[in-house]
Amino acid sequence: MKNNELEIEIKRTRKKRQHNNDDYNNEDLENEEAEENSDSEENLEEDSEKDPEEKDSEDSEEDGDSEEDGDSEEDGDSEEDGDSEEDEDSEEKDSEDSNDKKDSDDDKFKKRERISPNKKDDDKGKDNKDNKDNKESKDNKDSGDSEEDSIKDKANKIQQAATAATNFAKSASDMIINFISLLVNPIFWIVVIVAILAFVLLATAETVGQNTYNITCDSSGVGTINIDSNADDFTRQSAIASWLTSTPFDVTGGQPFSQEQAFGILGNMMQESYGGNPKAIYGDSSTTEWETLSNEDILAWGPDRGKAIGIVQWNQERRENLVNFAISEGKEWHDLTTQLKFLKKELDGDEKQNLLDGGFNEPNKSIEEYTKIWNIKFERPGDAGTEEGDRPRIEYALAFAQEYSGGSMGNLSTNCMGGINGSIDTSNLVQLAISSAWADRNNALGSCSGLNNCGQSFSKEEYKQAKLAAEAATTKDPFSGLLASCDRFVATMYRATGQDPNFPWGDSGMQRNYMVNSSDWEQVSCQNRIPGDVLWREGHVMLYVGEVNGRDSIASASYMERAGSLSGISCQGDNFIADGGSAIGFRKVR
After folding, report:
1. In 3-state terms, what secondary structure has residue 519?
2. What is the gyration radius of the CA atoms in the chain, in angstroms?
């Protein structure tokens, strides 16, 4: 029993030492202790199951040994020596048995270690393996996820492309179907025809309007008074009447005033400013004192009442407006054409409704009626509408009408209604071009705010008249009011003289193509030039006119900045050097 307990204690000690060295967990240690306790209990049970006689025998043997020991002690020294040797032999044997037992236990423990290796090392190895496996698994998973994502992306892109292609095909199909449906729909063609007609009518109206009103006038549709500033009263009054009957007004629906209306206006002017004198101030017709007053002098008066000026005696704010308008025109307030332009500005603006309310626009009224309406609705003096206020004006109007009835409008003012004033010689292309061009290029310079009425204010009168003649003889220019343009100048000369009625109005590129493709035109060298040749380079076209005042010359205009003018020319081989560049030449041969 003692040996069993010793063996159990040895095992327990060794396993505790092994636990301390190897960090056994508590659960394993408890399990092993439980096994050891179980073995101890089994040994105890085995001891308890032994036969009592066997147990007594063992005790007797032990007692016998003791008695023998006692006898031996009594025997003497010789027996003690013999017993001592036997005891030594017994102790050596017990020691060998103990060592063998210990070696057996060690072998058993080592065997257990081989069967159940160190748990910590096993856990570490297992953890390392698990970590490695987890890493490889994670890497494999990430790689698989990446490949899967890539495949999904490609699939999505393919799906999107397929969807886009399907949508595009559907849209294209719908558009084609809608377009075909539109083409077979008669309402569509009705709308198209109406739109085309509206466009044509609008363009025609614009062209006719430009030609009828403004082609020989400035951009506001107002012509100039062509008289000397010192002309007598009747000549000046006749020029005003000519201007009123050849200038369009909004109050009359874009038409000029009739003679009856013009006479009624003139009767009022003669009463207001002593014969329609533009320099009149306070009704004084003196030209010695008031003409020296400048725009600034008049403006210095401010809006004071009682200081009226001009042919209709503008007063207060209207007086200031006139002076500011003159400044904007670069003129003095007492210039007759400037005052007439300002009058048109008022009649087309704030004063229009007043005249309409009075019935001034209605036709078939008498001179007397028009005179009264103008006095009441436009002049607005204190005695307007009374016999005393209206009678003097009516008398002036009737007297002028009687004298004027035998006269002629002639060239007293520029006719802005499309008529050709005077006569121009269209029999010679070169001479018409020379007469239509300024000899001094500085006179031809100007600016335009648009293509409508571009160049009227800085073109020669001959050029304006030639443009009218060209349109009358051939077809109207889509931009009838355009004079400051190189293509229009050359086209005007060829059309007005009948040398080529089909010569394009523009642009210069179209004109070049026309000359290249027409059998009536051929290219020529500068060395063989003759007056009438057309010179062309990219973006510009000119007309060679020969020698003018001792200089070999061309006549040309420039887009929106210069009317017709003359300049020199030279040759460089076959090319022409003109207007700052090299050009090729074309000639009308048939």
Report:
1. coil
2. 64
